[in-house]
Each structure stands twice: as C-alpha cells, then as structure tokens.
Amino acid sequence: MQILRTPDERFAGIPEFPYTPRYSEVTDGEGGQLRVAWVQDGPDDADPVLMLHGEPSWSFLYRKLIPIVASAGYRVVCPDLVGFGRSDKPARREDHSYARHVEWMRALAFDVLDLRRVTLVGQDWGGLIGLRLAAEHPERFSRLVVANTGLPTGDQPMPEIWWRFREAIQNRPSLDIGGFVQSGCRRPMSEAVRAAYDAPFPDDTYCAGPRAMPGLVPTSPDDPATPANRSAWQKLCASPTPMLVAFSDGDPITGAMAPIFKREMRGAQGIDHPVVRDAGHFLQEDAGEELANYIVEFVRGNPA
C-alpha cells in the first residue's frame, strides 16, 4: 500500500486548535503499518468521549466541542480517520473500504488506547464507523450520540443532493475541501478556517480518502457492507445503551434519519432529544458549543 503523509508544516498556524497531536500505528491490512493521529483533552482517568468526524473533514471540526466537554470532567479523544487530517493517507481509492475504516478505528480505540465506558459522538462517517463499533463491541460503550449521521444498508434510497455531492467529489479535477465543508454549513467560515480544512491535502494526490468515501456508502442491498450494517441495526435497536439523537434543523443529507433513530432505537426511548437550530450538515462548525452542552447534559444524566 502506497502511503502519503502530510508534512507537519501544513498544520502550522491552524486557528483555535491548540492541541498537540498524538500518534500510533495500526495494521494497514496488507502487512504494513499506518500512522493514525488523534488529539486529547481532559483528565486521563476520566470516562472517554470518542468524537469521530466524517467526510471530508478532520478532528479540527470538533475544536468548539473539545474544551467544553473536557472542562466538564471527561477525557475527550478525537482521532483523524485514515486518509484525513494528520493520519496517513493511502494513495489509491481502492485502498479504502468500509470494513477497513471500521477496523482502523477499532484498532486505535481498543488495541492502542484501550478505551472503555465510551461515549461515542458520531457525525457523518463518524457515525457510520462508530455505530458499527458500538454494535460489534457493546461492552466498550456506555452512551451513544448520533449527530447528522446514519447507518445505511442500501435498502432505502439516498437523497438526490447526496448523489450530486458524490458525483462532484469523485469526479472534479481538483477538490476544494474547505469549500465542500462550507457548503455543508449554514453560517460563514473565515478564510483561516477554510484553509484549516484544506491543510491535510497539499494537492490532489492526497485526496484518495475524500474521493473514495462516498463510494463506500451502501446504496444497494447487495453492497459488501450491507450484511454488517444490517446486523448492527438489529443489535443497536435492541440495545439498552442510552442514545442521544442530536441532529441539526438544516441537514438535507441525513436529516430524515433523526426520527428513525428516535423511533427504532431502544436506547433512545425516554430521552429528551434536542434539535440544533440554524445549523447545516456540519453542525459542529455551525453550533459546536450548543452541541457540546447537549452532550455534557446527556452524559451527566445517564451515568455509566
């Protein structure tokens, strides 16, 4: 597997993100190693809150949440998915698969960090990956927060806007990553923030991950990931693990999933689920502080 690593100087001067990256290696699935990055804040011995980002962002997306959740007394762990942020970037789209991304995050969270009593916060692909982990390793999780995400099996059609996004990110000659993130927000970002989203990708050779991810979403019942996702749905629907459904009011991509999570998930019953107002798909960017406060309230109200 050919691996690219973004030079450290690309991350110099990133605004509002004072966290020192940590690194560890996981098996790439082909006999080699991948370096995976994460940032951390809060007491080392506190219950962990695992924040997983999605496409095409990186842990920088959680910068407004990290200090609030950490100051509430929790250990925040925020990785960069393989292919994103400071993590290594497999250079070919074919190197990426749904199963591999689940395994890479499993290896970091459990083999390297040995996280237990985890509160998952998953948005976009962070939910597609994190919910698989929660279903397949329920003993590791105490609470689940789903925020503008899903767990698709290919049995239901994807919205037209998602197909347009997939077409654009797979086929444009070059990618404006900051522009894609801005298009998923309701509120304007500064030029420095847009540049921070561009930072992991010096040129298009580094973009195999962002280009690959839409094609890994199950869109038909015979998708390779469908059986595992169906099994995860069944397990999560029956699970008593408390689930907070914290979607925004302005996400045309995953918004339809909020009522399904609320209705189908046993752990979501009897919980006061908030709606994050005036926020788009990337609700962490639009209303990160508000989302963080909902998470803290939920964790405190549902002791492990």
Automatic annotation (TrEMBL):
InterPro entries the record matches: AB_hydrolase_1, AB_hydrolase_fold, AB_hydrolase_sf, Epox_hydrolase-like
GO molecular function: catalytic activity
Record field: transmembrane: none
GO cellular component terms attached to this protein's record: membrane
Short name of any one Pfam family annotated for the protein: Abhydrolase_1
Stated name of the protein: Haloalkane dehalogenase
